[in-house]
Amino acid sequence: MTKIKLDLFVRAIAKKWLWVQASLAFAFLYLPILILIIYSFNASKFNAVWRGFTLDWYGSLFSSAGATIATSTSTGILPALSNSLLIAAISTALATVFGTMLALALERFHFPGRKAVEALLFLPIIMPEITIGISLLVFFTLAFRIVENLTGIRLNLGLPTVIIGHVVFNISFVTITVRARLAELDPQLEQAAFDLGANEWRTFWRITLPLILPAIFSAALLAFTLSLDDFVVTFFTTGVGSMTLPLLVYGMIKFAVTPAINAISTLMLLASLLLVVSSLRVKRS
Question: Which of 50, 85, 116, 215 could form a disulfide with 181 if both were Cys (CB 3.0 to 4.6 A apart)?
Answer without folding.
Answer: 215
